Amino acid sequence: MKWIKAHKFLTSIIFTTLALCLIIVASFLSQGSTSPLGMQVERATAFVQRPIAALSFEIQDGFVRLRHLRAENEELWEENERLRQEINSIRMSSQDLRDLRELANIFNYDLPEHSNNVVVANVISLDGSNWFNIFTIDKGTRDGVSGNSVVINGQGLVGTVIEAGTDWSRVISTIDSTSRISFIVARDPDLVGILQGDGMGRLSGFMLDSQAGIIEGDELLTSGMGMYPRGIDIGRVTSVDYNMATQLMTITIEPSVRFNHLRKVAVII
After folding, report:
1. Which helix (H) or strand (E) holds 242?
2. Class for domain 114-269, per CATH?
3. What is d(CA 233, CA 125) in angstroms, rounded to the nearest whole number?
4. What is each CA distance from 106 to 136, 155, 241, in whole angstroms?
5. 177: left (phi > 0), else alpha (psi -120 to 50), else beta?
6. Within the chain, which residues score under 70 in pLDDT?
7. Under 8 Å CB-to-CB from 259, ≥6 apart: which residues?
């Protein structure tokens, strides 16, 4: 009895199986369902089979529903993936449109007399730093790009080409510590100075005239002296100090170009 109480489920299965066997044997002995005993056997058989059949149909329906749910889940996953790709495509298209609108501003600059064309290029690799000190673009000598070609975008001066291959070029940006830029102040072109990059996304420099009246907020442009065309935006003055040791008016600049978000540039050829 203890075993039966401890194994109720197994016991019920055994009793049910034995009952079915007895019913089958009785049905055989009664020689069909036409005799009174056979009819009772048929009734008993139907009584036992009814819940079993119902359970069987329920299990079968469950498997069918499960297959349908799996199929619907796969369809939803595919639809979600398609929508995600469409959203990414829209985002990329929007970013490309903004980039092109910015690049459209380059035609407002006074290009050198010998340069009447620009080539739009994509940034394809960096030098590994957090800033775009040195990077590679996907245009080269085949497109007219050469060493010392000036690189700009819709925000302002980016840098110069230091090496050009057939279909690629390496660009050094204005924020690199080796760069030198001659500038003028937009509100007063007589105020002239020299800038140098700090390699960390900013520029600093000094005025050629230690008494120059430059102030915070002044916009700086390329002077046209050297390799850079005149009038390209460089950045905005964020601080002005007088260095007693060098007796120079020193300045710090916030570049116009967002050097940590460069995607497209234009090369003056």
Report:
1. strand 233-243
2. mainly beta
3. 25
4. 20, 8, 32
5. alpha
6. 1-64, 66, 77-116, 128-131
7. 131, 132, 133, 158, 173, 175, 201
DSSP string, 205-226: EEESSTT----TT-EEEE-SSS
Cα gap 119→265, rounded to integer Å: 8
- The two tokens of residue 228 are 């850079």
For residues 195 and 207, what is the distance between their CA atoms, to the nearest angstrom? 9
pLDDT for 53: 52
Give the pair of three-digit tokens for residue 210.
């230690």
Residue 167 contacts by C-beta under 8 Å, 6 or more apart in sequence? Answer: 138, 139, 140, 142, 143
Domain boundaries, the chain: 1-108, 114-269
Token pair listed for 79: 């639809």
Tokens 């009246």 label which residue? 213
| Amino acid (one-letter) located at 12 | S
pTM here is 0.60
* Helix pair angle (8-29, 36-103), 10° resolution: 130
Q: Is 100 helix (H, G, I), strand (E, B) or coil?
A: helix
Per-residue pLDDT of 50-63, as tens digits, reads 555 555 556 656 55
